[in-house]
Design a protein that fits this description.
The chain is of the alpha+beta class and 292 residues long. It is built from eight helices and 15 strands. It folds into three domains: 77 residues; 94 residues, GMP Synthetase, Chain A, domain 3; 101 residues, 3-layer Sandwich (Rieske Iron-sulfur Protein), CATH 2.102.10.10. Strand 1 and strand 2 form a beta hairpin. May be involved in the formation or repair of [Fe-S] clusters present in iron-sulfur proteins.
Length: 292
C-alpha cells in the first residue's frame, strides 16, 4: 500500500481506535472511563474551535469548496457544524453521486424536501418490480444521505407509482429481518482494476460476489445463479448479458440482473458505491438465495 493510501486509511479508522481506547479505559472503572471521555471531549472542542476560526478566515469560495470536498476535512466540518454547504445541498449532491448506481438498476430518486430533520425522497423506475433490487437501492440511498447529512433524524421514501409515504425504517426492515439479513459495507478497491467486459469473483466478508464492468459502471451480484443455484464462477459477459456457465441462463446485469429470454428470476444485486473515495460493496451477513 502506498504511503498516502496508508495515511488516508489510518485517519479514516481513527474513530474506531478512539472508541476501542475508551472501552479499554472502562475496564479500569467508571472514574477512569469518565476521565477518558472528558479528555476526548476537550480535544474535540479544541480542534472544533480552531477549525471554526480557520473557516471564518477563508474568504475564497473555491478554497472553502476544496476543503469541504475533502472526505476527512469535510467530515470534521460536519461534526462541528461549520460545513459551508447546508443540508439540502449536501443531500442533493449525495443523491447525484448515487444516481448512476440507481440508473444501472432502472431506478431513480428525487429529493422532495427536508423539514424538521426529515428527508423526503421519491423513488421511481422499473426496479420496483424486483423486491431484492428495491432493497439494495434503498440501502444505497440511505447510506449516501446519512453520510452526507448525519444530523438528520429520519428519511422517508415515497413510491412514485402509488404516491404513499413509507418510512425508510419500514422499508429497511426488510434488510434487517425476515428474508433480508443485516448488511455491512466493505471497501473493495480492487474493483477499480476491472476492465470493460471483465467478470471477476470476490470474497467480501464471507460472501462470494461476482462483479463486472459495463462501460464505466461496476455492477455486482451475489455469486449464485437463480436458475440452477450453482456458482456463477466462469460466467461470460456479452454486452450487458451475463451467462451462467452451468445452466446457460442469461441475466441482464444493467437491469437489476433480470433474466432475459427464457431465463427466469433475478440475480441478487449488491450495491457498489464510492464511499470515502473507495469503491465499496454492501453485502448481507449471511448468504441469501437468489430471487426466483
Amino acid at each position: 500500500m502506498a504511503d498516502a493510501d496508508f495515511e488516508d486509511s489510518h485517519w479514516r479508522s481513527a474513530g474506531e481506535r478512539i472508541q476501542a481506547l475508551l472501552a479499554a479505559c472502562a475496564t479500569d472503572g467508571p472514574a477512569a472511563q469518565a476521565r477518558a471521555e472528558q479528555l476526548v471531549g476537550e480535544v474535540v472542542d479544541l480542534y472544533g474551535a480552531a477549525l471554526t476560526r480557520v473557516m471564518a478566515a477563508v474568504d475564497d469560495p473555491a478554497l472553502a469548496e476544496h476543503l469541504a470536498a475533502d472526505d476527512l476535512v469535510g467530515s470534521l466540518l460536519l461534526v462541528h457544524g461549520i460545513h459551508p454547504h447546508d443540508v439540502t445541498e449536501r443531500v442533493s449532491r449525495a443523491l447525484d453521486g448515487v444516481r448512476p448506481y440507481l440508473g444501472s438498476h432502472g431506478g431513480d430518486v428525487r429529493l422532495l424536501g427536508i423539514a424538521d430533520g426529515v428527508v423526503r425522497l421519491s423513488f421511481s423506475g422499473s426496479c420496483s418490480s424486483c423486491p431484492s433490487s428495491a432493497v439494495t437501492l434503498e440501502l444505497a440511498v440511505e447510506d449516501a444521505v446519512r453520510t452526507a447529512a448525519p444530523e438528520i433524524d429520519s428519511v422517508e421514501a415515497v413510491a412514485a407509482e402509488v404516491a404513499s409515504a413509507i418510512p425508510v425504517d419500514s422499508l429497511m426492515s426488510r434488510v434487517h429481518s425476515g428474508r433480508h439479513e443485516p448488511t455491512t459495507w466493505y471497501a473493495v478497491p480492487e474493483l477499480e482494476a476491472l476492465r470493460a467486459g471483465e467478470v471477476a469473483g470476490f470474497a467480501v466478508g464471507d460472501i462470494a460476489v461476482l462483479a463486472c464492468r459495463v462501460g464505466d459502471a461496476v455492477l455486482a451480484y451475489l455469486d449464485q445463479c437463480p436458475g440452477c443455484a450453482n456458482s456463477m464462477s466462469g460466467a461470460t459477459l456479452s454486452g450487458a448479458v451475463l451467462r451462467c456457465p452451468s445452466c446457460h441462463a442469461r441475466f441482464d446485469v444493467v437491469h437489476a440482473g433480470a433474466g432475459t429470454g427464457e431465463s427466469v428470476g433475478h440475480l441478487r444485486p449488491v450495491p457498489v458505491l464510492a464511499r470515502d473515495g473507495v469503491l465499496s460493496m454492501a453485502v448481507p451477513a449471511q448468504p441469501m438465495e437468489a430471487s426466483a
